[in-house]
Design a protein that fits this description.
The structure is a single chain. The chain has helices at residues 4-15, 45-58; strands at 21-27, 32-38, 67-72. 19% of the residues are buried. Helix 1 packs across helix 2 (45-58). It is built from two helices and three strands; from the N terminus they run αββαβ. It has one domain (4-72): GMP Synthetase, Chain A, domain 3 (2-Layer Sandwich), CATH 3.30.300.70. The chain is globular, with a radius of gyration of 12 Å. A three-stranded mixed sheet has the order 1-2-3, covered by helices on one side. The chain has 75 residues and is α+β, with helices and mostly antiparallel strands.
């Protein structure tokens, strides 16, 4: 199982130095990962895509399969 703390660390690494903030990370027993981010003025789809790709690049699907959803708070 992928640990919530692992995803939080990866997300924070990507968000560091930006005006985006991590709101919540959830990981189910089936490795369904949900990451919620926010920013004053809103989050764009490109922000979500960039974070999703960054997280995926840090995980190995050959070791553990997972699904990943990155979204913004309030949507």
């Amino acid at each position: 199982m992928i640990l919530k703390q692992t995803i939080e660390k990866i997300a924070q690494e990507h968000l560091q130095g930006t005006d985006l903030s991590l709101v919540e990370v959830t990981v189910s027993e089936e490795n369904d990962i949900e990451v919620i981010i926010t920013r004053e003025g809103g989050v764009s789809i490109d922000d979500c895509v960039e974070l999703s790709r960054f997280i995926e690049s840090k995980l190995d699907r050959d070791k553990e399969d997972f699904s990943l959803m990155v979204g913004s708070a309030g949507i």
